[in-house]
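Could you join me in thinking about how sequence relates to backbone shape in a protein? Label the sequence line and the structure token line clearly, so we can match residues to local backbone shapes. Once you have written the record down, we can walk along the chain together.
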Amino acid sequence: MVRGARVEDGAARVEIALTVAGCPAAARIESDVRSATLSVPGVSSADIVVGVMDATERGRLTEMLRAGRPARSMPFGPDSLTRVIAVTSGKGGVGKSTLTALLATTLAARGLRVGLIDADVHGFSIPGILGLLGPDGAPPQPTRIDDLMLPRSRTG
């Protein structure tokens, strides 16, 4: 996402490219880049220039994030180690989301790679349970790059 960086007489200029216009994490990314830049010895000021990736740049980023995996594949085939656990109930307020969050964090703590989808038709609560809230206290929107969605992470 870094297009360029230079420092002259203690003044740093860093150019970054967001994945999409209106990126929900834009303010956080700019703030993080500014903080990281100002932490470099000898840098006294930071000018952060924020742009948006073009289709070619997004394509390169997507390929890097996919790490050689095909663009679309069925992850639940007979040779896959992927397992799906659905937590459901016909009644509301019985602790489905809490149980799901605890199950996911326990599996992750045991070293498994875990993904969690909150598909509650009345609204999602998992981001709040896991503490994945934005600066305004609302759950942040996921970052989307073309047909690839980058999930928020609580435990890595």
In short: The two ends are 20 Å apart (CA to CA). The chain has two domains: 1-53, 74-156.
